[in-house]
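tool=predict chain=A
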Amino acid sequence: MEQKENKKVEAGDKTAASPKGNNKVLFWILGGCLVLLVAVGLVIGVVAYLGYRKVKNEIKQNQSKIEQWQNTTNKISAQSESASGGKEEPQSVSQPTPAPAPTQPSPEAIGEEPTPSGFESAAGSGPYSGERQIGYVKKVYTKDGKNYLSIDYIQWLTGAEAEKAMREDGQCPKTGECIVFDDYYIRNVNPLIRTFEVSPDAKITMQTYDMEETGLIHPQEISFAQFSWIFAPKVNSRLKDVPYIVEISSKKITKINEQYIP
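tool=predict ok
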C-alpha cells in the first residue's frame, strides 16, 4: 500500500512540475517576441528618421530653387515691361533714369577740354552747368585722404543714330532690317581712361544694387565705401560691367548714377 501511495505522490509531483516548465517556455517565447518587436521598432525608427532628413533636405533645396526661379521670373517680367513701353510699371519698380543721348561727340573725344555750358540733363530736367558723361568705371580708390574714379567714356545711342552706328560698325545684316535691341547701342571708339577726384559729398545712386535679393529695380543711394567695394580687385560683381553716368563740376565728380540696362 505504501508503495502505491508513493507512486501516486511522485506522479503528482511530475504533474505539478509540468505547468512550471510550460510557463518557462511561454516566458521565453514572449520575451523573444518582445525583443523582436523592439528591434523592428528601432529599425523602423532609424529608417523613418533618415527618410525625414532626406525629405527635409530636398525641401530646402527645392525652396532655394523656387526662390531663384521667382527672382528670375520677376527680373524677366520687369525687363519685358520695360522693353514693351506700353504697360504701366509696377508700384514697387521705379522707372530707371534714362541715359543721355548726345547729338555730337564730347570735346574729350576730339582732344579738346570740355566747356562747362548747358549740357541737357540725363533726366531731361533742364540744363546742367557742368559736364555729364556716360562710361564704364575702371577703377575706384582712395589716395591721400581723397577719393578717385577712373572712367572710360562711351557713346550711348538710340533710335536712328543707333541703327546708323550699327550699320557703320558692321553689326547689321547686309540685307534686311537692322534691329536695335532694347532701342540702345553702345559705341566705344576712344580708349582714353580719365581719372577724376570724387567730391566728398558726391551722391551715388544705383538702380539694381540689391536686385538679386529683392528682384526689384529701384533707385537706391549708397555710400562711396559701398561703391568702392564693388570695384575691389577680388570682388566678382556684375555691377562692374554696367555703364555709369557721372556729373563733373570744377574737375570733381559730384554725382554717379548707374545706367540700367534691360
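The mean pLDDT is 75. The first helix runs from residue 2 to 84.
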